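Supplementary Methods. Inverse-folding protocol.

Structures were first reduced to a discrete structure-token string of length 446. This string, shown here, constituted the complete conditioning input.
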């Protein structure tokens, strides 16, 4: 398999697949860079697809491909300001090709407990696996007084910005081992493409140009593949501990065991493993608890009692029931309210009846809550697949029903709620209850 990456980089097919990915990416379709970047547009690249991809392959094979610097910009996501790097469309095509090769080679080396940036894996699987482990443990240990899990949840401080990439850093030897040392030595011009993709020249926020010594460029798809690979040895060590649960998503780590000493050993393994890699734990976000149904304390003060744990934006109780965090639920409701209010303004001139407007609003809300629809909300998939707390889904149903009635009638009074009942909203207007959808999903699985 070692020779496979050489064939891929010398051929044009992998670049055509990457070009299609770039062209279909909303992040590129809706930015000025996608429309025009130094005379090179996504549309023009699609038009000259075959010639462009053959030209890229030819330049890379000959060692003549020159990357442009990545440009640092500031963005705000989830109320946090972050620095990401923008790359020219053609460079991004090459980055995606390198990413595809790295993902292909790491697919068999990464343990199943790594849920980030992999085909067929996601945060959904990580949260579901955690909930299954808790339910299986409760079934195994039937005495409530004997139940209890020692849990540590932590993340890595500035993970992407801290990975060493200087000459001689561990990542380069790992990549050579992954790709085949002999093949790397025989194809130095192709190996250089890997190095340039992972450690590009960048222009920082202050306009200074230079090559990164530490950190991988957030915004490049290569960064995700490297982030998975860099902790693979630590992942393997923690996954090998018997009768435990381990999961990692990016820089978020969780480990659970019925044995206190085993969890302490895992904490020590994480700390020492990160130290060897030039990384450190984010102590402000580290959580160690004794997880049980009553939230009772254990004999060790290092593990205070708790009956619920939060992971990747979700809250899991000791029954294995999953709910979305209240803050995220509030963000979902606010987004729905804003979108539906905009729909009401669009139909003001037509003066529809409450039932007519209610059907229109319910249709748009259903689409927003359906993860298969193009304009769905980012949390829609979680509501359908992860959240099992029926009381929370029932609360959301109630809030959405009230919102639909208020916007359709212009009156949110209790009298209007009696006139247009929740049943009317479901059966006449067509609102799809989240509780009903969740129950149907469970029946299909059974």
């Amino acid at each position: 398999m070692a020779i496979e990456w050489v064939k891929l980089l010398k051929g044009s097919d992998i670049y055509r697949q990457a070009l299609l990915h770039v062209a279909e990416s909303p992040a590129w379709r809706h930015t000025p860079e996608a429309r025009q970047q130094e005379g090179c547009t996504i549309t023009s690249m699609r038009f000259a697809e075959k010639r462009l991809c053959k030209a890229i392959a030819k330049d890379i094979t000959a060692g003549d491909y020159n990357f442009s610097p990545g440009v640092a910009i500031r963005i705000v996501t989830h109320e946090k300001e972050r620095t990401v790097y923008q790359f020219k469309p053609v460079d991004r095509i090459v980055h995606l090709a390198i990413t595809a090769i790295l993902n292909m080679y790491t697919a068999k080396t990464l343990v199943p407990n790594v849920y980030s940036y992999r085909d067929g894996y996601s945060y959904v699987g990580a949260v579901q696996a955690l909930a299954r482990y808790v339910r299986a443990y409760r079934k195994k240990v039937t005495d409530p007084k004997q139940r209890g899990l020692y849990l540590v949840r932590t993340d890595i401080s500035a993970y992407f910005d801290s990975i060493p990439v200087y000459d001689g850093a561990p990542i380069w030897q790992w990549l050579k081992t992954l790709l085949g040392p002999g093949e790397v030595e025989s194809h130095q011009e192709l190996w250089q493409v890997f190095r340039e993709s992972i450690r590009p020249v960048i222009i920082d926020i202050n306009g200074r140009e230079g090559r990164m010594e530490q950190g991988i460029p957030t915004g490049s798809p290569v960064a995700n593949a490297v982030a998975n690979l860099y902790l693979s040895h630590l992942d393997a060590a923690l996954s090998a501990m018997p009768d435990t649960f381990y999961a990692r998503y990016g820089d978020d780590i969780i480990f659970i065991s019925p044995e206190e000493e085993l969890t302490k050993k895992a904490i020590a393994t994480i700390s020492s493993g990160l130290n060897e890699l030039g990384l450190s734990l984010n102590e402000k976000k580290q959580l160690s608890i004794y997880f049980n149904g009553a939230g009772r304390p254990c004999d060790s003060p290092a593990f205070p009692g708790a009956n619920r744990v939060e992971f990747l934006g979700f809250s899991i109780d000791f029954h294995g029931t999953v709910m979305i965090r209240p803050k995220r639920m509030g963000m979902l409701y606010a987004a729905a309210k804003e979108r539906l209010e905009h729909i009401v303004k669009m139909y003001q001139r037509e003066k529809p009846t409450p039932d007519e407007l209610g059907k229109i609003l319910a249709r748009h809300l259903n689409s927003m809550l359906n993860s298969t629809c193009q304009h769905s909300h980012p949390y829609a998939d979680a509501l359908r697949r992860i959240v099992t707390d029926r009381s929370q889904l029932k609360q959301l149903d109630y809030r959405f029903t009230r919102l639909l009635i208020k916007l359709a009638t212009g009156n949110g009074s209790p009298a209007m709620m009696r006139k247009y009942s929740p049943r009317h909203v479901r059966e006449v207007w067509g609102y799809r209850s989240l509780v009903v959808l969740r129950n149907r999903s469970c029946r299909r699985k059974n």
